[in-house]
Amino acid sequence: MDLTTAHIGINCASIETSMKFYVDILECIPLLRTHSLKGMSMGYVQLPGGSILELIEDPSGKARESAMTSNNHIAIRTNNVDEFAEKLVAAGIPIEVGPFRTDIVIDETFSDEATVYARVSESGTETAQRFLFFRGPDGERFEIMDDTVV
Q1: 55 in the same domain as 75
Q2: What values do phi and psi take at 81, rounded to 5?
Q3: How far apart are CA 50 and CA 58, in angstroms?
Q4: Exposure string for 39-75, b = 16+ CB within 10 A, e = fewer
Q5: Given 9, 50, 52, 104, which is the most exposed site by the fewest CB atoms within 10 A?
Q6: Tens digit of pLDDT for each residue in 56-104?
């Protein structure tokens, strides 16, 4: 049996506002929009790299309240955190924290595939990454990470 990620669902107050944000700021490809599931409005966008986000319209505002108190987040890899920060500032989107650098000591790896997630030093015991965090239009939290600084 093969398992792969189909999509990640995110509640939003407005499909139009959210799709514009995901396309303009995160450079997503808009895929489709539907109202077919019990009258719910949903939009689908594809992140660079292939992951698909399902935007589920919830105009009640409850999704925003929940998102603002959660550490749940979507992490997106870039090769230039500072350039992405400039893009956010130019768009008037506040940066919650960062950019900052963190040196991480790896306690244990479980697979040679671990290097797909985090580029590690030649000794295989540490990595250095740069991050920033910001919020989307409905309070959803994003982490932008650059792990090319080993």
Answers
A1: no
A2: -60, -40
A3: 25
A4: eebbbbbebeeeebbbbbbbeeeebbeebeeeeeebe
A5: 50
A6: 888 777 767 777 777 788 889 888 899 999 999 999 999 999 998 877 7
Q: Dihedral of CA 127/26/6/8: which sign?
A: positive
Report the first-to-last Cα separation within the chain, whole angstroms: 36
Q: What are 54's two structure tokens?
A: 């399902």
81, 128: one domain: yes
Report the CATH number that the domain containing residue 39 is assigned in CATH.
3.10.180.10
Q: What is the phi-psi region of residue 124: left when phi exceeds 0, alpha when psi lies from -120 to 50, beta otherwise?
A: left
Which of 22, 38, 59 terminates a domain? The answer is 59
- Residues 48 and 103 both lie in one domain: no
